[in-house]
Amino acid sequence: MKKSSFQESINHLRAYLQINTAHPHPDYSSAISLLTNFASSVPNLKAQTLHFTPNKTKPLLLLTLPGSNSSLTSILLNSHIDSVPAETSKWSHPPFSAHYAPDGKIFARGAQDDKCIGIQYLEAIKNLATNQEHGFKPVRTVHVSFVPDEEVGGFDGMAKFVESNEFKELNVGFVLDEGQASPVEEYRVFYADRSPWHVVIKAVGEPGHGARMYDNSALENLMKSVEMISKFRESQFDMVKAGLAANSEVISVNPVYLKAGIASTEGFVMNMQPSEAEAGFDVRMPPTADPELVRRKISQEWAPAWRNMSYQITEKGPLRDYMGKPLLTHPDESNPWWSVLKQAIEAAGEKLNAKAEILGSTTDARFMRQMGIPAFGFSPMKNTPILLHDHDEFLVDTVFMEGIKVYESIIKSLSSYIGA
Ligand code: MET
Ligand SMILES: [Zn+2]
Ligand SMILES: [Zn+2]
């Protein structure tokens, strides 16, 4: 077997990106076939497809490279197969064409989030396996998981996987999951995520003529809440603007939809005030935030029953681990995995941001941290604008190739570390 050439690696990435795994109808089976096929070209890499839903429509691919010492805990490299949707008409190139521009940019939904890392894991393992006779012998077993449904909360994917017997048998001791691009030369590592709540507030009120001024209309009630929420949002954002906290260290509350009005064939009826109105918010809380405080704010200020409001909170995953501690992995010398990871990145000739960060968004790593397993978020994309969930998401070919080298160093170091 030989190592993949530059062009072959790029072709692997582009072929994966060309499979439309965006919600609401991700093509998981084509993605799993492609990945399984690739994995079969790597010696000793075993593949199994697991199912945790009754109709088997959400497969999870687990690849395993056995280590020489099965009494040590294993390493898990995770990525998700699914993507958020793309507004095709707003893109410069069709989002599932993986357009390869002359300047090296590869445009595709998933180029950064996070199909790049899935292929990089495989390319790195393939390169290491090719060099086996020159010394690469994993001591710890290395697993690579490709999971479904991360972008919709992970409940039929990673959440079920970590609860399974199959997962327990893996005896995972350390996890690497996705991170986020770095606009500068230094790579970024994430030691925690923010936890999402989806909050819907509903108002009811007196209906009436569009020309009438009166108290307690549904939209007036909703707008009062929106004002209070905006004030809270501003108080959080002001701390960021004043340089007192990073974006990911405060509680974000962003409106994502508003729904009200009486529809007609002409659009909306303009001279009637509706009796119902609602709004949806994406709320993200850093690991140290007090969820009870937010809950109280919602029930007393944002959607008080006395203003004819009601609310629904959907918690998208855990906030604390099974010991009741915040979900975070210590990025310091108290955690030997931190040192191994840091040294491996530096050994590859790369620089790491001096401070590990909380990720502003959310990943499947929270389910593993909940089990008490240390997990860091890392996607080796340097000098790259942050374009996840945006139009024209792209990754530059050379950045992708450098990432493979970095993972080679990381996988080698993690799998041969015998201290923990
Ligand atoms: C709703 S769970 C999180 C899904 C996605 N990764 C996000 O951060 O938005
Ligand atoms: Zn992602
Ligand atoms: Zn995402």
UniProtKB/TrEMBL annotation:
Alphabetical list of Gene3D superfamilies matching this protein: 1.10.150.900, 3.30.70.360, Zn peptidases
Record: residues binding Zn(2+) 2: 113, 151, 389
Organism lineage: Eukaryota, Viridiplantae, Streptophyta, Embryophyta, Tracheophyta
Pfam families to which the protein is assigned, alphabetical: Peptidase_M20
Keyword terms of this UniProt record: Metal-binding, Zinc
Cofactor: Zn(2+)
Keyword Methyltransferase recorded: no
A cellular component term, taken from the record's GO annotations: cytoplasm
GO molecular function annotations of the record: aminoacylase activity; metal ion binding
Active site positions: 82, 150
Record GO biological process: amino acid metabolic process
Binding site residues for Zn(2+) 1: 80, 113, 178
Keyword Zinc found: yes
Listed name of the protein: N-acyl-aliphatic-L-amino acid amidohydrolase
Cofactor note: Binds 2 Zn(2+) ions per subunit.
